[in-house]
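Q: What does the assembly look like in three dimensions?
Context provided by user:
Components: two
Sequences:
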Amino acid sequence: MSIVVVGTVAFDKIETPFDRTERILGGAATYIGLAASQFAENVNLVSVIGGDFPEEYISLLRNNHINLDGLQVKPEGKSFYWSGRYHADMNSRDTLVTELNVLADFEPILPESYQSPEFLVLGNLTPRVQLRVLEQLKRRPRLIVMDTMNFWMDTAWDELLSVIAKVDVLTVNDGEARQLTGEYSLVKAAQKILTMGPKFLVIKKGEHGALLFNKESVFFAPALPLEEVFDPTGAGDTFAGGFIGHLARTKDISFDNLKNAIIYGSAMASFAVEKFGTEGLVGLTHQMIDERVRLFVDLVQFDISLVSK
Amino acid sequence: MSIVVVGTVAFDKIETPFDRTERILGGAATYIGLAASQFAENVNLVSVIGGDFPEEYISLLRNNHINLDGLQVKPEGKSFYWSGRYHADMNSRDTLVTELNVLADFEPILPESYQSPEFLVLGNLTPRVQLRVLEQLKRRPRLIVMDTMNFWMDTAWDELLSVIAKVDVLTVNDGEARQLTGEYSLVKAAQKILTMGPKFLVIKKGEHGALLFNKESVFFAPALPLEEVFDPTGAGDTFAGGFIGHLARTKDISFDNLKNAIIYGSAMASFAVEKFGTEGLVGLTHQMIDERVRLFVDLVQFDISLVSK
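A: Here is the predicted structure of the complete assembly.
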């Protein structure tokens, strides 16, 4: 099953209360791709980098079986660069630097082999780029997953809504679900968003887990309680990658299997936050992932006898 | 199975962004007792009220099969009064008024029939009163559950620790678990608290659910995603009441059954927050409670096929 992933490939520089990094490998498409490639063999990336991007990072992506035919290299340009500092609670952060560089005028081009994917993930990017990708598809994918953020709600409202209308699964955080609908209740916000196009909505709540909605049902998965969170960067993207990877592997887009995809996404995110950058996603085995999933089963499963019986 | 509940019986006056009340029935022991009495027949309350407390509220407690032999009435005194205003997010609030009144010099007295309970809940109160109750027990209960709050950590640290050392289950919120231990990670905070006396720890996270820890395991239950939260007052106490009520009904204090008790507690809390004050807890049937529990089962259950198989 083929997956196309569109998003940023970037340099990140991260400060936490405990440590800091130099410029390291980051970007939404990087995290989504690395997580998805744990489950699916045919992961195809669409992004852009500058001439400053190290061969070492490109090799890392290739070694994780990510196809880079759709990765544009602009030798004269500089790669997208983001720097942020996390607060003591590790839940909130300040952006210190955002340099769009080659991303500023990015025109995505889908190679011939990318134009009929089974699954498509539109990572967080300007809605204009997300639309350009949709226009180049020869056939509608079985499932289109879209991530976005509050910034596009502030700056590109109409284009954003037109992309949302075309996708199957929208992933946003709780604040973004509220901003998108003007509803404080996440249940009401979800029902509104499900009239805007998507059949499924994932609301990411960081350390408080994630909710999956369709019009009839709701499913909740907690985040794994961890002793240490080292770096939350990329957790949401890693979640999306594990989510789509599981769906592509199992070829089943029922609500029940979307629940399982949420668990696999949460398991992958728990690896991501335990180390800096993409480090936690490298060298994982299926055994390690399944052990993590078993922790989720233990965390939430109960066997109840009802009081009215 | 007998339950003794110690805590406040009070007047509450509540403002939310949507509505406000006059002085209505409130207090930790009230919520704990009303929730526990849905499951257990022998619920015995220890508290104090003034001569101003309306007969109507006393009847309400009696009609819910709560034994009031341990409820002291001070005809010359005024009942404990609390007033608060919730912020727009319904998660945080300002206390507008706290009048201790008869609570200021409360000396709890356990009637003879209360002195050998199977289950004891020490609701949130000054640790001195919680200690006085423990001293009057003829026999150690099968399970002692204690609730407390940050205020006692600031003002009565040593007494607080000496009560904590004597109980089986401590319930606190996430901020309080952090304050009690100086650990930001809830996993680390839990492990520290479990060296202070309790065999089990419940960390309440409000709309984000609750965690149950023992030294070996952790269990998580979400809060039910609701369309509307009308009044969060008493949600934590209602949770504790449903928790102890389920344990008393099933006579089983294994970790697996404590998980179920967390679910019943969460179900009861979901009723409490849907209406003002104690209104949501009156007129419930076992059928209604079980329907709510089934929503929790649907909310978290998944049936996963592992990737390494």
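Follow-up: The first helix of chain B runs from residue 28 to 36.
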